[in-house]
Specification:
It is a single chain. By secondary structure, this protein is α+β, with helices and mostly antiparallel strands. 45% of the residues lie in helices and 13% in strands. Strands 2-1-3 form a three-stranded antiparallel β-sheet. Helix 1 (8-21) crosses helix 2 and helix 1 crosses helix 3.
Length: 98
């Protein structure tokens, strides 16, 4: 039971929680860092994609709870692929070197 088993409805519930708590509190509560490149875009808002997917796991599998940040890798082949498979849009923000 990993991210491959998460359904769209669980992601939407994680987004609702993110909106209710706010970004800072949501990330702090689940011990996720801020996204650097991959963001879920929904209704004109941007969400930390890995954190959303990790928290969606708790809605899909309440007994198992949320995934920790180090339980899975983020990026194109994991988080982006799964969210797009579920019909979401993932935006990649390229960081500019200092």
């Amino acid at each position: 039971m990993g991210i491959s088993d998460i359904q769209r409805s669980a992601v939407l519930r994680a987004v609702e929680e993110f909106n209710r708590l706010g970004r800072e509190r949501f990330l702090e509560l689940y011990n996720y860092g801020k996204a650097k490149q991959y963001f879920l875009k929904l209704d004109g808002k941007f969400y930390d994609s890995k954190a959303i997917l990790g928290v969606a796991h708790k809605y899909q599998f309440p007994v198992k709870g949320p995934l920790k940040s180090d339980d899975f890798s983020g990026g194109k082949l994991t988080v982006q692929q799964k969210l797009e498979e579920l019909g979401f849009t993932v935006v990649i923000r390229k960081l500019k070197p200092l």
